[in-house]
Every structure is written in C-alpha cells, then in structure tokens.
Amino acid sequence: MSRKSAMLSLLLSQALFLCGLPLFLQLLLYLNPLVIMVVWFCILLFVSFAVLYFRGETVMIPRLLWQAALICYSLSLLVLLFFRPKGQVYSYNLIPFSTILSYLSNEMNGLVSFYNLSANVGLFIPFGLYLLSRDGKEPSALRKFLYPFITISDIEICQLVFRRGSLDVDDLILNMMGVYLGYVLYPLFTSVVVFRSGKSKRVQRQ
Length: 206
Known about the structure:
Blueprint: H1 3-25, H2 34-54, E1 57-62, H3 63-82, E2 91-93, H4 98-104, H5 110-122, H6 125-133, H7 141-162, E3 166-168, H8 169-190, E4 193-196, E5 202-204
Parallel strand pairs: 1-4, 2-3
Antiparallel strand pairs: 1-5
Helix pairs in contact: 1-2, 4-5, 5-8, 6-8, 7-8
Keywords: Membrane, Transmembrane, Transmembrane helix
Protein name: VanZ family protein
Pfam family, one: VanZ
C-alpha cells in the first residue's frame, strides 16, 4: 500500500467514524463497549479496501498475520456475544425468521434493528473469506456449509447453556448468509489482497 493510499484510507475512515459516532454510542445500551472498537476497525478495513481497489493497488499480507488477525477478531466477537450490559433479560427464539421479521417491521429501535441485521451478516463475511484463503485444495460445497454451520451452532448452544446473549435460530441464518457472502466476495477480495509468507509490500495492479 502506498503512503498516499494509507493516509487517504485513514482520513476517510476516521471522518466516517466520527460522523457516525453519536449513533454508534447508542449501541452501548445493548452491547459490550468493545462494539465501538469493532465498528471502528470494520470501517477502517472497508475504506482501506475501497481505496486500494479504486486506486488500482494490491497489498501483500503475510499469511501468519492474516491468521492472527482473524483469531483476535474472533475473540472480539465472542466478547460481544457473551458479555452484554447488565440488566438485559435472556431470551431465545427457535422459530425461523420471526426475529428477522420483527426487525424489518420496525417493532424495535431502528438503529438496533439495522445493527443486528447488518452485523449478524457483515461480521461473519471474514470467516467465508478465510475458509477459501487457506492453503491447499478449495473445500467442497459440503464442507463450506458444515464448517461454519457447526461452529455457529455450537456458539448458539453455548449461549443457551451459559445464559449469555441469546440463542436465536435467526442469528444462525444471518451468520450463515454472512459466511456465504464471504464466499461470493472472495474473488473481489483477492483482487486487492495477496497472501505470502514474508512481510507485506506494495504491488501495483496491472
């Protein structure tokens, strides 16, 4: 990544984050304070990717760094899922699409509805990208489904057992949509990001 692209990405992402900060702070009523950092990080990544793509640049990332970043990202999501503000009532839903329809019908706060729908999809896109980025042969269609399905189901069951967050079959549906969206976006992702075994450097896309 060139210095100009890095500076442009930083300035644009911070401006976008600061403009939306009054709205993002409202999420603290429902979620762990870590959500602000997750939102900031996601905006930075999205803007950086857009800048690189439209400037015709690629960036080489050490595969080990990509794996470490995903581990840290996963831990952050687990904190959001299992550690909520005190006073929230535990709930569960086993009826498909009932929660989704509730969000879409504006029965709840508009910001919360938008965040829950978009976050449950968008925050799981990296896992779809990661599954296809691993070394070796591309996983079969069955494994593409089973790996995320089993993992997400285990998380939902843990929320039920430990009464943390809420077990919701609609979360599973939305999360799986996010993983599959990652599969769809993978060719676009690799047009900007190239993995290697050494340190990252800038490469000009032809």
